Amino acid sequence: MPSPRRPGHTPPVAFDEDAWFADMRRASAGARKIAEQVREGYESSGVPVSELRRCGVDARDGTSLEHCVKVYIPAPIGPHGMVFRNRPRP
Questions:
Q1: 1 by DSSP, 3-state: which?
Q2: 78 vs 2, 8, 65, 87, CA distance in Å?
Q3: What's the CA gap between 8 and 63, in Å, rounded?
Q4: Nearest Cα to 86, choosing from 20, 36, 34, 12?
Q5: Residues forming a β-bridge with 8
Q6: What is the rounded CA–CA span in Å between residue 8 and residue 85?
Q7: Other beta carbons within 10 Å of 48
Q8: 58 pLDDT exceeds 90?
Q9: How many Cβ atoms sit within 10 Å of the Cβ of residue 17?
Q10: What are the pLDDT digits (tens) for 5-39?
Q11: Average pLDDT of every residue of the chain
Q12: Edge-first strand listing for the sheet containing 80-85
């Protein structure tokens, strides 16, 4: 039986494995370690709503961020981040 979620956390999150591995290949060893720890917590407890920030419509590299939110790691304004799509892809 899954553990109950604490108030203020999102529903479960899912990671796109292809995107995850591509990002981890480019990340430093320290950033990978932090990302793995954060991912584990998000998968088990969700993302704290208070940490979610709006994304611009497009990333600097032109990636569409429509319907996305982001978190900074470590919260609240760390140098790393994760972007989540808050609607399923069509």
A1: coil
A2: 30, 20, 20, 25
A3: 29
A4: 12
A5: none
A6: 18
A7: 15
A8: no
A9: 8
A10: 556 777 678 898 998 999 999 999 999 999 999 99
A11: 84
A12: 53-54, 68-73, 80-85
